[in-house]
Specification:
Structural class: alpha+beta
GO molecular function: endonuclease activity
CATH superfamily: Endonuclease/exonuclease/phosphatase
GO cellular component, one term: membrane
Number of strands: 12
Keywords: Endonuclease, Hydrolase, Nuclease
Radius of gyration: 16 Å
Mean pLDDT: 92
Low-confidence stretches: none
Helix content: 10-25%
Organism: Jiella flava
Strand content: 25-35%
Order of helices and strands: EHEHEEEEEHEHEEEHE
Distance between the termini: 25 Å
Number of domains: 1
Strand order of the largest sheet: 3-4-2-1-12-11
Protein name: Endonuclease/exonuclease/phosphatase family protein
CATH topology: Deoxyribonuclease I, Chain A
Length: about 250
């Protein structure tokens, strides 16, 4: 079994409007996922460096950053980054610039755990429905071009409030669109904006929103996660863990 998670960290700015990257890392340690997709990881202005110092990731977690063609000091592509447990290696990375009025992107990584290979996409879609639809098509088209076909997990902030939104329908044609639960805003969640999407060859074990008191403070989004299985994923050597729901 593999645990995957998605988290919009709002550049590590908490609900008290103070930047606390170590709180973000503490939340990730609570979830204990094998692969994490982060959104809004890099600062938006100036040098656009990572809001989480790479050294802090090395010192305070067991994660490594999947390398992308980022600006010096950054770890993401248009704010999207993928962290993996140190036993997981990245074979290749594809960075997408998505059609949008404002900068939007996605990162697709082919990952390897022992003999098992799988694909993860991290994305952050736009605020306008028409552009979200175009962005979903762009991500799906990029996945179709990649060979060989692999078990695929897409994660991110889709910015879609409507449970019947068009981007969900596009992803749902060949994938299972999960609804872990309401994740935004973190203090009083109303919208299920953060989603995990699975190709048909990935089995869902369970999924949830991480509801710890620390997570409610660390960002304006709550992280979501899922336990999944696919051919070869037993190589993770990880037992089925109970879903975490701290008070």
């Amino acid at each position: 079994m593999l645990r995957v998670a998605s988290y919009n960290i709002r550049k590590s700015v908490g609900t008290d409007w103070r930047r606390r990257p170590l709180e973000i890392l503490a939340v990730l340690n609570e979830i204990d996922a094998d692969v994490v997709a982060l959104q809004e990881v890099d600062r938006r202005f100036g040098t656009r460096t990572s809001s989480i110092p790479p050294r802090a990731i090395r010192d305070h977690t067991r994660y490594t950053v999947v390398a992308v063609d980022a600006r010096p000091g950054g770890i993401g592509w248009h704010g999207n980054a993928i962290l993996v447990r140190e036993t997981i290696a990245a074979d290749s990375v594809t960075c997408l610039t998505l059609p949008a009025l404002e900068p939007r992107g996605a990162v697709i990584a082919d990952l390897r755990l022992g003999q098992a290979r799988f694909r993860v996409a991290a994305m952050h879609l736009g605020l306008l429905g028409l552009w979200r639809k175009r962005q979903a098509r762009a991500v799906l088209a990029a996945l179709d071009r990649l060979q060989p076909a692999l078990p695929t997990i897409l994660m991110g902030d889709l910015n879609e409030w409507n449970p019947d939104g068009r981007c969900f329908k596009l992803f749902g044609r060949a994938h299972a669109v999960l609804t872990p639960g309401r994740s935004y805003p973190s203090r009083m969640p109303l919208g299920a904006l953060d989603r995990i999407i699975l190709s048909r060859d990935v089995e869902l074990v369970d999924t949830a929103v991480h509801l710890s008191s620390r997570a409610r403070r660390a960002s304006d989004h709550l992280p979501v996660y899922a336990d999944v299985a696919f051919a070869g994923s037993a190589a993770a050597g990880r037992h089925v863990r109970p879903l975490v729901s701290h008070p």
